[in-house]
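S1.2 Input.
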Amino acid sequence: MNSLAKMLASGMVLLMAIATTDLCSAADDEQAIRSIIEDVRQGWLNADGAPFREHFLDFEGARYFEGGGENTGLTDLIEHHVEPEADAFDGFELNFSNIQIHVEGDFAWALVDTEIKAKVRKDGRIIDNRGRATYLFRMVDEYWKVIHTHSASRPVRIQESGR
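S1.3 Output.
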C-alpha cells in the first residue's frame, strides 16, 4: 500500500471513530435527559424535592410555569408546588409519553405529552387532564441541568369534545 493509500485509510479510520463517538455521545445525552425527566416525574409523584435539587440548575431569575401558575426560583417550585401536592391529592397519577429530545451542543430541550389524574382531598374534585410540557436543559460541568420548564393541561372531556 503506498503512502497516499495509507494516509487515506488512516483518515477513514479516524473519521469513523469520530462519527461513532458522536453517535454514542448523542445516545448518551438522550439517555441522560430521559433519566432526568423520569426522576422529575417521580419527584412530582412522591412530592419529593430531591430530584429537582439534583437535576435543576438553581440560578437567580429561574422561573418555572406549571398549570398556568409561575414559580420563581427552585425553592419556590419545590416548597410551594411539588411538596404540597403530597397533602393535596389522593390517587395521584402522572404519566409522560411521546418524549422527544433535541440536543444542540450544550443546549437541549424535550417535548413531553402529559397525563394527570388525581382526586383533590379538599373538595373531592376529580382531575383528569392531558397536556404538554417543555423542558430546557443546559450542560453544566458535564451534566445536563434543567433550566426551565413549562407545562399546561386541560380536562380530557374538553379535549375530546373539540373545544
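S1.4 Remarks. The chain has a mean pLDDT of 87.
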